[in-house]
Automatic annotation (TrEMBL):
CDD domains registered for this protein in UniProt: ABC_ATPase (cd00267)
Protein name: ATPase AAA-type core domain-containing protein
Source organism, top-level taxon: Bacteria
Start and end residues of each ATPase AAA-type core domain: 308-411
Cross-referenced Pfam families: AAA_21, OLD-like_TOPRIM
Residue ranges constituting the OLD protein-like TOPRIM domain according to the UniProt record: 460-532
Family annotation (InterPro entries): ATPase_AAA_core, Bact_Antivir_Def_Nuclease, P-loop_NTPase, TOPRIM_OLD
Amino acid sequence: MKLHSVYARFYRSLNYDFIRASGEHYEPDPWDETPEGNYPFVRIKLRPGITTVVGANESGKSQVLSAIQAALTGIGFERSDFCRYSRFFGVHNDLVLPEFGVVFADISDEAVKLIETISGHSDLHDVERVAFFRMNQTPKFRVYVRQNDKWTGPEHVAKPSALADFGVPVPFRINADVPLPDSVPIDYLVSGNKTAPLGRDHLRELWDGFHQNNSWFQSDQTVTTHAGAISKMFRPIRQATEDEVEMYELAADLIFKVAGINKELVRELQAHVKKKNGYANSIVDTINSELAKALDFPHWWSQDSQFELFVALFEFDLVFMIRDRTGRTYGFDERSAGLKYFLSYFVQYLAHEVRPDGRPEILLMDEPDQFLSASGQQDLLRIFDDFADPKDAGRDPIQVVYVTHSPFLIDKNEADRIRVLEKGEHDEGTRVVTSAAANHYEPLRSAFGSFVSETTFIGNCNLMVEGPSDQVLIAGASRWLKKVGVADRDRLDLNHITIVPAGGTRHIPYLVYLARGRDVDKPPVVVLLDNDNAGNEAKDDLAAGGAYGDKLIDSDLVLQLARGPLDGLTTDNPLGIVGIEDIVPFHVALLAATSYCKEFVPSVNPLAFGLAAATVYPDANGPDGKAPKNYGTLKFLEKAIADKSGIPTFHLDKVAFARATVDALTGTAVDLKVTEEDRDTAAENFKLLLKSIALCQRTAERAESVQKISGRINRAKKDFTRTHDSQARREDVAALIEEIGSQLDRSPEAEDVRAEMRTWHAKFELDTDPRKHVTDFDGLLKALNGLAYKAVRKAAAR
């Protein structure tokens, strides 16, 4: 059983659903009634897995989380939380508290029987939904049941505590304000003693004070004489603050719950740190070994595949340290706050334990983006995904609801997760914007306070397309193919490729130049062009290069519909494929046009015109034996509808058509019935298109990785040859190998470079007499020169 929807009314900015209330055909839900008429609740529909709530500042995002907690638990709200601008605030004796409700789906037979025992319901069958509401009027805690698409009247819940048996999820939070500490006292780990750590600075201060003022301690008399200064130097150890204790608790969870270290081992560490340093350090080695296995950072932290978190022993504290791809070690105080907070979220995730009573849970998290970089936020999405769909068989799935105002915490592959909030005017309060993903996240623009549609300079890899309709169709098709089980490699991960609409074919070469032609770091770019004269010209312009004839993009990264890798696309258009709309089966296009007309031109019903491909498309031979000009499916369909409707100015908008096409294929629009044959044809076309784009994406990213590898090797080589112009010691070459290796990532190209350098140990006898010079210095330089371009040669051979 999953939480399906949460309702709130008169709660802070969640006043009531003023849009729904003002609708001409508003039909109240059974719980909408008040002593002063019907006021619909603000409803937030939740996904079974993850729900993302976004909105501008003060739009009510955080209040949604509080409303979920209040609705599930019945605590955490009071009279002062009643909406201040509600017409009932302070003037109605029967409406003094906010009101909340929750609706559940997938109700088991056992849960139905329980409802009958805790309420006046009896003989329930075919139960579709169950709703619990906390109201001002009697019955104050009530239950509704939906059967055959109809809700029953309210029944009093006699024993609210029985909800635990019903399986109502328990909300919990990951604390977004507590970072992992720089260090943790060993005494706290062993005994929970909340004294602050001594710290290196304090210990150094004590030693320097004793060393510089040794004469103070020569006799009882000198001690008495300098008692004031000595007392000041040996100030009492302070108690840790509440914030520090929270950080220590997080560190303890990391050591004991995540790494699985036995507390007795840490107690031994405390006992032996003063006298058996070797034994104590062996215990620390064990802790670090278990930490490395439990954390598995290469899987979670994409910014550095060689990242390591470990602890070091410093007198009475365990100090958290970091080793990154440079091979160097850093203290926590030397790294960004974002890393500390990501580690905090990660540790809280790994340390989370299943409830002993077996009740399901729901994770609520408020703005986890505030300390994280864009990459860190993308990594956090993977943690949320594992909460909702754990890969570990020992973990139960947990619903996740988080609020954010960051575009980087939106999973573009899961558009239906998004719930957009906006603040109405005056007493209207917060409302939930429907169809958040329509027109490729159009409502998110105002929610984030800035234009959120893709730009060339946001994405790690960019797909240039001619217009926004291409963007909508490609993104929508990718999400659709994911749902029907198409392999990851045969579609796009929309979080790792940015679809950039150029605003017309003629703008594509310039956009590619902006992205690739001016800076040292060149983001990978793939181009998709229409199969027309404008597409041909753009392809020629891209081949010609930039302002100085420099190649901006390899020709195999420029895709053109119905050509090259895409010549297997099929179409109902007898004239062939011009634009992306032509790969949509005709009947699907007709349904999309019908959906468009229902929304924008309700007087026109294309399905009633008896349109067919044979009548909409012109004859491929033409009346004069010559093929007519191919304007594409959209224009031909638009003309046919204009002729049949008698509206010569009828226009079929490309973006709206693209949206309607995605709705038809995904089944979002239930009144649009797509045949299995047409759905299969569309799937095969889009699979070929997305597979080709994904292959180009991998090729482009590999090429940029190769260039970066070569650049790093060349810089290291230049520095080495500057200081070793005619000879070098073997240990210097070993250090060079270590330096180059530390700068490489985990890509296959980098591993090839590492493998090549490993052969140098035997080839140049680096492990024998390290202080001796390399015998074949010219051979070393030749090998070093070849190393920089090994990845380039390997990539070219693929």
